[in-house]
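Dear support,

Our group has been running a series of protein-ligand predictions, and this particular one with S-adenosylmethionine is the one our PI (initials K.S.) wants archived with full inputs and outputs. We had some confusion internally about which version of the output was final, so please treat the block below as the authoritative record. The input we submitted was:
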Amino acid sequence: MQAPLFAVEEPQAPRPSVGVSAPLGTPVLACQDNLAFMEGLPDGQFKLIVTSPPYNIGKDYEAKTSLTAWLEGQKRVIAECVRLLHPQGSICWQVGNYVRKREIIPLDVVLHPVFAELGLKLRNRIIWHFGHGLHCAKRLSGRYETINWWTLGDDYTWNLDAIRVPSKYPGKRHFKGPNIGKLSGNPKGKNPSDVWTFPNVKNNHPEKTAHPCQFPVELVERLVLAMTEEGDAVFDPYMGVGSSIIAALKHGRAAWGCDLMPEYVETARDRVRQLRAGTLRTRPMNKPVYDPSLPNGGH
Ligand SMILES: C[S@@+](CC[C@H](N)C(=O)[O-])C[C@H]1O[C@@H](n2cnc3c(N)ncnc32)[C@H](O)[C@@H]1O
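Confirmed final output from the archive:
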């Protein structure tokens, strides 16, 4: 028997339809295998599908398998995600390395042909840099993973202004040429580039739950703001404790997600309740990263 779907505060509520008609405040959070969850959903509805799949490195929530078997599983899930993707939509697949006898295999390299053969186009390979992780003795310690941003077509939703960051020299002006005296940069701020520094969710992070590898909410918020409009639907097929759900709801998007592990889904439900109550702690977008060389770490 399939595990039941549930809405956060209305366990008996019927499953809402996807898209603009989905009730915005009521995320659909399923404790279910993602292929089973996606099977019944209509084509072309999600504006953003953002996720981080298991990397096949033996975490509590995954059975370590061969890279070939992992890839076959990913192909099936990605093909279903592409079916569900809105024509102007984006898929953001966040991955790191598979490690085999100390050899690293970057999973985005392995996955590139899968997305490309399904007709998607890679727009950015965003480097997510973070400060903490395992200390390696025989190679350099890994301090980044990638978010691979794919779109179906060339006409995709893209709101750069929504994610601009403060310019280094906001008052800088052209000193020669036809625009002399005018501001040389965009007064709304600069493009955040394809290298993003967000602290990863370790024990001292305000968002930490029992999940071993959560997304920082601020990372998903940036994707949601840039790649969707208010009222659009966002889906995370490996939802974990619902960080993508929180990011979507914070910005008035409909949120859908599923995960196999009941305890993670329960935590996701709880986080949504806290968000509604105004008690959920999330690290603010654009808060500077702690810098021990500055007074109070620069905060
Ligand atoms: C890397 S974690 C994602 C964490 C998530 N980004 C968050 O912020 O909490 C991958 C998740 O995929 C879930 N998972 C693994 N296989 C799954 C499947 N077939 N269907 C749905 N979820 C699955 C695991 O339980 C785990 O929580």
